[in-house]
Design a protein that fits this description.
Shape of chain B: elongated
Radius of gyration of chain A: 18 Å
Order of helices and strands of chain A: EEEHEEHEHHHEHEHEE
Structural class of chain B: alpha+beta
Structural class of chain A: alpha/beta
Helix content of chain A: 25-40%
Radius of gyration of chain B: 32 Å
Number of domains of chain B: 2
Strand content of chain B: 15-25%
Largest sheet of chain A: 6 strands, mixed
CATH superfamily of the domain at 42-66 and 85-236 in chain A: P-loop containing nucleotide triphosphate hydrolases
CATH class of the domain at 42-66 and 85-236 in chain A: Alpha Beta
Strand order of the largest sheet of chain A: 6-7-8-3-9-10
Number of helices of chain A: 7
Helix content of chain B: 40-55%
Distance between the termini of chain A: 25 Å
Oligomer: heterodimer
Number of strands of chain A: 10
Distance between the termini of chain B: 27 Å
Strand content of chain A: 25-35%
Largest interface: A-B, 26 and 24 residues
Shape of chain A: globular
CATH architecture of the domain at 42-66 and 85-236 in chain A: 3-Layer(aba) Sandwich
Chain lengths: ~260, ~425
């Protein structure tokens, strides 16, 4: 009997995404017809030179920006047509950002920083405390919970950012050059944490220009001039084998 | 997001920038304190005023030639100079003809005398009152030691005197003043009584006067005053019961008008005044001060509000990155709006509370060294808080809207 592959759910599906910036006289096409399917628990690196459109793609995947044309399904919902308030909710519940510059709120404690998404999500105080402590423990900073970001090293700050990103159990963790401001040893530690999260079932999208970092991912998507140049699977364990009838979208997997 | 969480966030932001918050507060504190201080001071005076103006008692009104409230135009003054004086005959007529009154007294005042006894003398600040036995009840100032004036004292124009409490203490520290002879303005009087002590916030001369029979006064000083006018007495009239005071005033006016030959279509050629009318006059006077304080306070608050707006605009620019971070974490535009708006409102209200406290303090300063009773007009505290919130919302709105409308990406990229 043939081995039936495990059917994995599509978490995220981009279909013919265009993004055009109106710069007065001329129009800049940051993305041209980008289509992608990303499944649960995939570990993806998006690469590309500066100006390739990777930041724009990340902003759209992170629901910080809306595409000019095309459809973007996140957990089955078309977010391309959503209002600012709805997008806020999606960012709140489904996306966990990890930024190059950590982006912590400087005057707030580690605890408050990690708790913040849950405040906007309307989670009661008691639960917030429990989840925040869990997440902080998970990145190994439970002894620093009352500290302010400026009392921590860069690596520790990025751990806080990761704790904040995962505290709401998001569909995707979106890491934009997460090691860009760290030395290679600390960067390695941060990548270790991301690897662990992936092993525990978390979907992760890395945006990076470093090959070394990209190697942590199991699939590398390269962008050039706003288009997908290549989409390569480094290892097939997380392969996205979606039955065609389950696809509510056109286009589909590039593999 | 719960209100409590939003409040905590705003407090955090305010405490995160203490110096700037304090500087912003100064304007609000000054504005609120100036309004509250003036309103408190007026209210302090008002409460005391109402108590003291009631010296005449709620049942008593007074007829006099010269209006108690002064003149508002020179024409009024000239007209009043031609008015006939009040005499004891008026008092007698009212006593006999008006049904609704029970005590009708007459009094006439002069100021600036010294009282001497056994080589000791007071300063030249003693008032003489020529009065009648009705004086103590009509002025609610009673004789504590000795006796009141008697009808016989009036009839015979006896040289007897009831002295104020302070005069008694000054001249008779060790001996009983009753029966002793004092000298005042060259005339000798036998002391028959001493008034109760009666402190006053306005002037405080209730313990520094001497009451002698009105007839004695007129006999000594004559019917013409030094300026050439016929001496006019003030007539104090007590209604039988407080609720009759309006009827009593009306009837008394009719009697007096008839006696003085005032034609029906002419105005009174005399002044009727009661505690109530005096309080009204005081209130009318303070309206202007209140309005001025209010306008000044509002201007101060508007200036402070513009300061708040400026600070909040700077704060929004300075925290653009933070706004971007919050938006990336799922803050909705209204969350950002309420955070900045609350910050402005809290800032204003902290200033407001301090301003109210300072204002109450300043407004009550004079009660420390006068007889005024201190007073805290809480309704003004409520108005102050209301105004501060309005200023916070009014001037915090624009910066807050600006913050809430920032695009998440632009905000995140801001350095």
């Amino acid at each position: 009997m043939a081995v039936i592959p495990e059917i994995k759910e599509t978490t995220l599906s981009l279909n013919a995404i265009d993004k055009t910036y109106d710069m007065g006289v001329e129009q800049v096409h940051a993305l041209r017809g980008v289509s992608l399917d990303i499944c649960r628990n995939e570990y993806i690196a998006i690469m590309g030179a500066s100006g390739s459109g990777k930041s724009t793609l990340m902003n759209i995947i992170g629901c910080l920006d809306s595409p000019s044309a095309g459809a973007y399904y996140l957990e089955g919902e078309n977010v391309a047509a959503m209002s600012e308030n709805q997008l806020s909710e999606i960012r709140n519940r489904q996306i966990g950002f990890v930024f190059q510059t950590f982006n912590l709120i400087a005057r707030a404690s580690i605890f408050h920083n990690v708790e913040l998404p849950m405040i906007y999500g309307g989670i009661p105080r008691g639960e917030r405390r429990r989840y925040a402590e869990e997440a902080i423990t998970r990145v190994g900073l439970n002894d620093r919970i009352k500290h302010k970001p400026n009392e921590l090293s860069g690596g520790q700050r990025q751990r806080v950012a990761i704790a904040r990103a995962l505290v709401f159990n998001p569909s995707i963790i979106l890491a934009d050059e997460p090691t860009g401001n760290l030395d290679s040893r600390t960067g390695g530690e941060i990548m270790g944490i991301l690897d662990e999260l992936h092993a525990a079932g978390q979907t992760i999208i890395l945006v990076t220009h470093e090959e070394e970092i990209a190697q942590h991912a199991s699939r590398v998507i390269r962008l050039k001039d706003g288009e997908v140049e290549s989409d390569l699977r480094v290892d097939d364990t997380d392969a996205c084998i979606a039955p065609s009838e389950s696809l509510h979208l056109v286009g589909g997997a590039t593999s | 997001m719960k209100l409590l969480d939003a409040l905590l966030m705003s407090f955090q932001a305010i405490l995160g920038n203490k110096l700037r918050s304090v500087l912003t507060l100064v304007g609000i504190v000054a504005g609120v304190a100036s309004i509250i201080a003036v309103m408190t001071a007026i209210s302090v005076m008002q409460v005391t005023m109402e108590q003291e103006m009631s010296v005449l008692g709620a049942q008593v009104f007074q007829l006099q030639k010269w209006p108690a409230g002064g003149f508002s135009t020179p024409e009024e003054r000239r007209a009043a100079m031609t008015w006939p004086p009040f005499t004891l005959e008026h008092a007698n007529a009212i006593r006999e003809q008006v049904e609704t009154v029970d005590l009708v007294g007459a009094e006439i005042w002069d100021f600036g005398y010294a009282v001497e006894y056994a080589g000791e003398s007071t300063n030249e600040n003693i008032s003489i009152c020529g009065g009648t036995p009705e004086y103590p009840p009509n002025n609610t100032h009673y004789v504590g030691l000795g006796r009141n004036l008697s009808p016989m004292d009036i009839k015979s124009a006896r040289k007897v005197a009831i002295i104020g409490f302070a005069i008694g203490q000054r001249l008779f520290p060790f001996v009983d003043p009753i029966g002793k002879t004092i000298r005042m303005d060259g005339y000798k009087y036998q002391v028959i009584g001493v008034f109760d002590e009666k402190k006053s916030a306005f002037g405080g001369n209730f313990d520094n006067y001497v009451l002698i029979p009105v007839t004695t006064y007129l006999k000594s000083y004559g019917m013409i005053d030094p300026r050439g006018f016929s001496r006019s007495v003030n007539i104090t009239v007590r209604a039988k019961r407080p609720e009759l005071i309006r009827d009593a005033q009306a009837e008394t006016r009719q009697v007096v008008r008839r006696m003085r030959g005032v034609k029906p279509n002419e105005p009174d050629n005399f002044d009727v005044y009661s505690s109530e009318s005096m309080i009204q006059e005081f209130n009318a006077m303070t309206q202007g001060v209140k309005a001025a304080a209010f306008v000044i306070g509002i201007i101060a608050l508007v200036v402070a509000g513009i300061g708040i707006m400026n600070i909040m605009l700077v704060s929004v620019t300075e925290r653009t990155k933070e706004i971007g971070i919050r938006k990336s974490l799922g803050a909705k535009p209204r969350n950002i709006l309420s955070q900045f708006l609350l910050e402005a409102v809290i800032l204003c209200n902290i200033g407001g509370v301090i301003g109210i406290a300072v204002g109450f303090g300043l407004g009550n300063v004079m009660t420390l060294f006068t007889e005024f009773e201190n007073n805290v007009p809480l309704e003004w505290a409520a108005i102050g808080i209301l105004f501060c919130s309005a200023v916070g919302i009014g001037f915090g709105m624009l910066p807050a809207i600006r913050a809430s409308r920032l695009h998440p990406i632009d905000a995140l990229r801001f350095e």
